[in-house]
Amino acid sequence: MEKFAPLNMSPEELIEYTPEWEGERFADGRPKVPDDILERMRNVSITQAWGVIRGPGYNWQYEDGWICTHPGQVLVGRALTAMYMPRRPVMRQVMEEKGERAGCIGDQISWPIDMLVPGDVYVADVFGKIDQGAVIGDNLATAIYANSGNGVVHDASVRDIDGIQELPDFTSFVRGFHPTFASPTIMLTGVNCPVRIGGATVMPGDVVLGRDDGVVFIPPHLAEQVVKTSELIALRDRFGKQRLAEGKYTPGQIDTRWSDPIEADFSRWLESHIDELPVSRAAIQELLKERTW
Predict the structure, then answer these.
(1) Global pTM value
(2) The domain containing residue 139 runs over which residues?
(3) Which of 105, 113, 107 is nearest to 154 (CA)?
């Protein structure tokens, strides 16, 4: 597809700006974090993910203040980004002409939706617009869900919330609700480009993790580390509570850096309970290979 907006990034540019990712990529250049990692990410808390990505210096990847359309549910997927700005008539006209030459169909707000593939999360920077800020309603939500199997992160309002909530897995994070329509007041200035969502910088291919306490955008090369760290924390917590209940160790021994004998006990416990734990056998076996106790 022709670059129909001036801020789009080419596949080559996306590769250049995400050099840490060494795995598979989509044809558009976005990092393609494996489905297995995305599925395991559903058990990760916002706090755990945030704690891991801050270490390498990714301090501006979390945003709160959302309304979740499906409270209590979790949103996970790979970001496909879109940037909107207040409308300038001539600029929008030029973009529409470029979009027509590139084969884009319908209004600009449909173009990113047509690009979604399963596992994507549509992340739209609509500068927090509420009145005349609803880029999507229940019809476009249905199209988004059909293409991606996911909800959205929209820094704007949405319309037709009753219809949106009828989509059982369309877990989305939005700024509010409003009956007005956004298209006459905005223009699409970029797809698959860096966007600012509140205080966070989001790149195409980031792993989106949304829960009731906010949304974190995880750089793709850190996604596996986030998952493994979260799983290890969950297993260590389970082991520690069991050993405390048994009276084998004192709270002072568990609530500090574990001694070598406790670490060795933990490894033996993992092996003996491998089919009973809330982490897959394959993940535990991988963890055991990496341990030295």
Answers:
(1) 0.90
(2) 11-32+64-218
(3) 113
Based on the structure, what is the number of domains in the chain? 2
- Cα separation, 185 vs 230, in Å, equals 43
pLDDT in tens, 57-89: 999 999 999 999 999 999 999 999 999 999 999
Residue 57 lies in a domain: no
* Contact criterion met (CB below 8 Å) for 4 and 95: yes
CA gap 200, 150 in Å, rounded: 21
